[in-house]
UniProtKB/TrEMBL annotation, chain B:
Protein name: Myotubularin-related protein 9
Keywords: Acetylation, Cell membrane, Cell projection, Coiled coil, Cytoplasm, Endoplasmic reticulum, Membrane
Localization: Cell projection, Ruffle membrane; Cytoplasm, Perinuclear region; Endoplasmic reticulum
One Gene Ontology term of the molecular function aspect: protein phosphatase binding
GO cellular component assignments: cytosol; endoplasmic reticulum; perinuclear region of cytoplasm; ruffle membrane
Topology class, membrane: Peripheral membrane protein
InterPro entries found in the cross-reference section: Myotubularin, Myotubularin-like_Pase_dom, PH-GRAM_MTMR6-9, PH-like_dom_sf, Prot-tyrosine_phosphatase-like
Protein family membership: Belongs to the protein-tyrosine phosphatase family. Non-receptor class myotubularin subfamily.
Family annotation (PROSITE patterns): PPASE_MYOTUBULARIN
Coiled-coil portions: none
Pfam families per record: Myotub-related (PF06602), PH-GRAM_MTMR6-like (PF21098)
Gene3D superfamilies on file: Pleckstrin-homology domain (PH domain)/Phosphotyrosine-binding domain (PTB)
Domain Myotubularin phosphatase: 123-498
């Protein structure tokens, strides 16, 4: 609390982000220990979590006050005008401090208290059990086993304790290989395809430089290929552009030399690094934030940002994996530089294409826990949880979510969850409200005692399950129904619901999805009502037949009998008017839309004689 | 002329048909006067039944004696026929070319088409101007029907009956007609019942360089204003273009002569600019090899969505004048037959709930496009693949449909019809067995005796079996004005038209079916609950009766 000097400022204006005029809402701004809160004159509340703030900017003083622009990691942008510069300055300074904490212990998760006891909290953490997940995949088995080599984080600090490796790979081989791999991240199992007996493995780049080789590493790769009884050839997929990988050789790193490894096929797939991705998103957001954006500027901005090109590259790489396993029955080893960004993207997305389990709500949580959290995707650094190196921040996980969204667009019935689920997960990788995404690897998380001091996100999402269910989901599909997305460029669209999730006016005013979701819920309720009614009717009839002659029974009315239908002329009852409320149009107001800026022109008092050309110019500009 | 003269080879065996997302089919190719038919003669089904008038362009090439004809259709589909024998192939190609570019309208298929369905309601009489006027006359007596154009003498592109201010007599209308481009004097397009404001449309005023004026014109449009109120003139051309038009005798309303009106210039493109835009867009959509950057830059360079945004913005502006400013609007461009109609009709979609129903939308097409004299025959003569560029070819109507689709996307429950209805209208505007879209205006249609000699599209569409295909399962009448967003992030490429032949929509279609199932199941359940409740209520009263005595 020591950072907060002003807790409440009145007469603050909240500007419309896209309006070229100064349309605004006036209200009161509150600063709490965890949130910034704005309550407008209609008592509508806008809550902004301090951890969500990506940047705060104080613009030059204007006649109406001091502008404060806050950009959030969930792509909300708010533009306040604070009447007094002094207040603005205080809030600005407070937010700077509050949004960038120096210590993990100061993050929201450590103070967040959802009123659960210890055992409930522990249960929450036990919801996702990775040992169970490997069992589901079908390991251990005659070819793959659990290795205790990293039990004490001795070989690799950023890997989890439990790792699965080929049964024939001995400990010395593992240790030797880890010494030849960047950050000790040697090849381990990520996904095992039970039907094809093929595996997706992951690691970091080899320290090959221009000519170095390592027999243990070569053995380990051979062990992986031998663990596949059908196809001895395996793919080694380097997810980096070839040029980047070659440049790494000068630093003693690099990529596998096909001549040194038997039975491998080496392949680059060309996904750019975290710095390119960061600046790509930056460019995308700049374009989108432009007031009075033209169609051409939008598309050329989208093109120049390269964002969709990167999304397509990740998707293509995942498809490569899925095809290698499905078509060629080959195992695949994936790496990038350190094997925690692009490798996580490609391995998780590849598994999602191959195994329908990961397309369920629970399965998707498992996938994130496995390929992202446990394998050491540096969430805290990539999301900028703490005040750290801004060059470590990158939207790698956001890209993964976007790829999944594109798949849900192409396969609307293949996923148990809906878009809201993806958006909610995105919200919480930055919120620091739950412990799951804090820290950069499992070892660090254990040191932070997250399971004792914080809560897991997943049970809270499951509590709200209804909100995240896809009403069109067809659960009938087999476990190994593979998704084969089409990556023709025109299939990739700008994800408006993510990058403009708080810009209400840009979205359709009626949501088909919500209507269907509610109707689905209503159907379940109606089914129950029918059962209730039928049993009541039965009771009624039984009661009657008890006292009445059996003759009457013969004439008892069946629900479907035409006699009943014709005899009834009661007025139809309207049931559960849920839909009507949903169909009403939100914000149906021309002032909410981009052409609204003419309103200002209209409302201006007109001078008696307007010079024609002047008037015209004003209206067309 | 006999079609037989044009058909040198009426039949070729062992022709292979290639279509995207279908396996190749071998069969017999037949040419008739109006159709190209390919049948594999299995189960007596035809794999392809294509109207010659739907063919936009053909390419032919040879490998040895195997010829290949690539047929590019006006609905953007591309199919390929492999024809054995060079002579057969050449014959077929030249026949198709001749048959798809017949000069005379009366040789077109609608004049030969014999409907196989029972006509329940003759579409030619479904939307009579008198009936449309009755909808207004209950609300206002300020307007009247005028028969001044009965013989098409005052304005060749207007229908015989138009709605004009009551206080203006036919003599004045004749004078105004001489002051407006193409004789298109201001007429009523839409009456907003909520506040009595109106949309009128016309051709540009012929002011010329010396600022000619016409007192009757001023009187006519002022007659639509209430005392002390101002109106807006929306000129669909930029100020620059409007000024240049003066040199050719056209122009715009001078402020001095129309002091009660405020003019707003918007810039909606016309003619070859739109045609080029369509050609570029379809080209971009058809090339699956484009990488992301190239695709996005081609999409941008086509400018198609820019046109969509411009048109929608103008329509929204007109609607805003009416509904929010409480001011009447006069819309015109140069001729008043293209961008004027786009803006006026879209404003009605926004303002008027009726125009979002099937009947209402059909009435809108009939009134604001067909009778209003949009030259369909000229504009829709060719589509995206044609190389011979004519000034008058332009996808004006398709752009209008695209704009409607954009609004439909944003308000998916407010329209009684679905996307397929719009796609169907697009197809029939370019090639059809019905006479509805033939000719350029009512005068031409009269001369062609379309009502007697051809079938109306509406006769076919408005039968329950057809209508069910076009029904929007989510529709719930919405009496509000619907304001769409025109931000570039809110506008989308109309995949149902432009990517229709370029990707499989299997999964999306299946999901749509599932959605329909959920909705239908919901209705069933609601009905069943109602029945059960009544049954229970009856049983309980019976019970009560039995217990009471």
């Amino acid at each position: 609390m020591e950072h907060i000097r002003t807790t409440k400022v009145e007469q603050v204006k909240l500007l419309d982000r896209f309006s070229t005029s100064n349309k605004s809402l006036t209200g009161t701004l509150y600063l709490t220990a965890t949130h910034l809160l704005f309550i407008d004159s209609h008592q509508k509340e806008t809550w902004i979590l301090h951890h969500h703030i990506a940047s705060v900017e104080k613009l030059a003083l204007t006649t109406s006050g001091c502008p404060l622009v806050i950009q959030c990691k969930n792509f909300r942008i708010v533009h306040f005008i604070v009447p007094r510069e002094r207040d603005c300055h205080d809030i600005y300074n407070s937010l700077l401090q509050l949004s960038k904490q120096a210590k993990y212990e100061d993050l929201y998760a450590f103070s967040y208290n959802p009123k659960q006891n210890d055992s409930e909290r522990l249960q929450g953490w036990q919801l996702i059990d990775l040992a169970e997940e490997y069992k589901r995949m079908g390991v251990p088995n005659p070819h793959w086993q659990l290795s205790d080599a990293n039990r004490e984080y001795k070989i690799c600090e950023t890997y989890p304790r439990e790792l699965y490796v080929p049964r024939i790979a001995s400990k010395p081989i593992i240790v030797g290989s880890s010494k030849f791999r960047s950050k000790g991240r040697f090849p381990v199992l990520s996904y095992y395809h039970q039907e094809k007996e093929a595996a997706i493995c992951r690691c970091s780049q080899p320290l090959s430089g221009f000519s170095a080789r390592c027999l243990e590493d070569e053995h380990l790769l051979q062990a992986i290929s031998k663990a596949n009884p059908v196809n001895r050839y395996m793919y080694v997929v380097d997810t980096r552009p070839k040029l980047n990988a070659m440049a790494n050789r000068a630093a003693g790193k690099g990529y596998e030399n096909e001549d040194n490894y038997s039975n491998i096929r080496f392949q680059f797939v060309g996904i750019e690094n975290i710095h390119v991705m960061r600046s790509s998103l930056q460019k995308l957001l700049e374009v989108n934030g432009t007031k009075g954006l033209s169609v051409n500027d939008f598309y050329s901005g989208l093109e120049n940002s390269g964002w969709l090109r990167h999304i397509k590259a990740v998707m293509d790489a995942a498809i490569f994996l899925a095809k290698a396993i499905m078509v060629e029955n080959a195992s695949v080893l994936v790496h990038c530089s350190d094997g925690w960004d692009r490798t996580s993207q490609v391995c998780s997305l590849g598994s999602l294409l191959l195994d329908s389990y990961y397309r369920t709500i629970k399965g998707f949580m498992v996938l994130i826990e496995k390929d992202w959290i446990s394998f050491g995707h540096k969430f805290s650094e990539r999301c900028g949880h703490l005040d750290g190196d801004p060059k470590e921040v990158s939207p790698v996980f956001t890209q993964f979510l976007e790829c999944v969204w594109h798949l849900t667009e192409q396969f609307p019935q293949a996923f148990e969850f809906n878009e809201a689920f993806l958006l909610q997960i995105h919200e919480h990788i930055h919120s620091c409200q739950f412990g799951n995404f804090l820290g950069n690897c499992q070892k660090e998380r254990e040191e932070l005692k997250l399971k004792e001091k914080t809560y897991s996100l997943w049970p809270f999402l499951l509590d709200d399950l209804k909100k995240y269910l896809n009403p069109l989901y067809s659960s009938k599909s087999q476990r190994f129904t593979v998704l084969e997305p089409n990556t023709v460029s025109f299939n990739f669209k700008f994800w408006r619901n993510m990058y403009h999730q708080f810009d209400r006016t840009l979205h359709p005013r009626q949501s088909v999805f919500n209507i269907i979701m509610n109707m689905n819920e209503q159907n379940k309720q109606l089914e129950k009502d029918i059962q209730d009614l039928e049993s009541k009717i039965k009771q009624c009839k039984n009661k009657q037949s008890d006292g009445v002659l059996t003759k009457e029974l013969l004439h008892s009315v069946h629900p479907e009998s035409s006699a009943l239908k014709t005899s009834l002329c009661l007025k139809e009852q309207t049931l559960l008017p849920v839909n009507d409320a949903l169909r009403t149009i939100e914000g149906s107001n021309p002032a909410d839309n981009r052409y609204c800026d003419y309103t200002e022109e209209f409302s201006k008092a007109e001078p008696g004689v307007v010079s024609l050309e002047y008037g015209v110019a004003r209206m067309t500009c | 002329m006999e079609f037989a003269e044009l058909i040198k080879t009426p039949r070729v065996d062992n022709v292979v048909l290639h279509r995207p997302f279908y396996p190749a089919v071998e069969g017999t190719l037949c040419l008739t006067g109006h159709h190209l038919i390919l049948s594999s003669r299995q189960d007596n089904t035809e794999e392809l039944w294509l109207l010659h008038s739907n063919i936009d362009a053909i390419d032919k090439r040879f490998v040895g004696s195997l010829g290949t004809i690539i047929i590019k259709c006006k609905d953007f589909r591309i199919i390929q026929l492999d024809i054995p024998g060079m002579e057969e192939c050449l014959n077929i190609a030249s026949s198709i070319e001749a048959l798809s570019t017949l000069d005379s309208v009366t040789l077109m298929y609608p004049f030969f088409y014999r409907p196989m369905f029972e006509v329940i309601e003759d579409g030619w009489h479904s939307f009579l101007p008198e009936q449309e006027f009755e909808l207004y006359s209950s609300a206002t007596s300020d307007w009247r029907l005028s028969y001044v154009n009965k013989e098409f003498a005052v304005c060749p592109s207007y229908p015989p009956i138009v709605i004009v201010p009551k206080s203006i007599d036919d003599e004045a209308l004749r004078k105004v007609a001489t002051f407006r481009h193409g004789g298109r004097f201001p007429v009523l397009s839409y009456y907003h019942k909520k506040n009595g404001m109106v949309i009128m449309r016309s051709g540009q005023p012929l002011t010329g360089t010396n600022g000619r004026r016409c007192k009757e014109d001023e009187k006519l449009i002022n007659a639509t204003l209430r005392a002390g109120k101002r109106g807006y003139i929306i000129d669909t051309r930029s100020l620059n273009v409007a000024q240049q038009a003066r040199a050719k005798g056209g122009g715009f309303e001078q402020e001095a002569h129309y002091p009660q009106w405020r003019r707003i210039h918007k810039s909606i493109e016309r003619y070859h600019i739109l045609q080029d835009s369509l050609i570029k867009l379809v080209e971009a959509c058809n090339d699956q090899t484009h990488n992301m950057d190239r695709w996005l830059s081609k999409l941008e360079a086509s400018n198609w969505l820019t046109h969509v945004k411009e048109i929608l913005t103008t329509a929204c502006l007109a609607a805003q004048c009416i509904d929010r400013e409480g001011a009447s609007v006069l819309i015109h461009g140069a001729e008043g037959t293209d961008s004027t109609l786009q803006a006026a009709s879209l404003a009605q979609i926004i303002l008027e709930p009726r125009s979002r129903t099937v009947r209402g939308f059909e009435a809108l097409i009939e009134r604001e496009w067909l009778q209003a004299g949009h030259p369909f025959q000229q504009r829709c003569a060719q589509s995206a693949y044609c190389s011979s560029k004519q000034k008058w070819e332009a996808p004006v109507f398709l752009l209008f449909l695209d704009c409607v689709w954009q609004i439909l996307r944003q308000f998916p429950c407010s329209f009684e019809f679905n996307e397929h209805f719009l796609i169907m209208l697009f197809e029939h505007a370019y090639a059809s067995q019905f006479g509805t879209f033939l000719g350029n205006n009512e005068s031409e249609r009269c001369k062609l005796k379309l009502q007697q000699k051809t079938m109306s599209l509406w006769s076919w569409v408005n039968r329950p079996s057809e209508l069910s295909k076009f029904a929007n399962p989510l529709f719930e009448a919405n009496n509000l004005v619907i304001w769409p967003s025109v931000a570039p992030q809110s506008l989308q490429l109309w995949e149902g038209i432009f990517l229709r032949w370029n990707r499989s929509s299997k999964y999306v279609d299946e999901a749509y079916e599932e959605m329909v199932n959920i909705i239908e199941y919901n209705r069933e359940l609601q009905a069943k609950v109602n029945i059960l409740r009544r049954q229970l209520a009856e049983l309980e009263t019976e019970d009560g009766l039995r217990e009471s005595p």
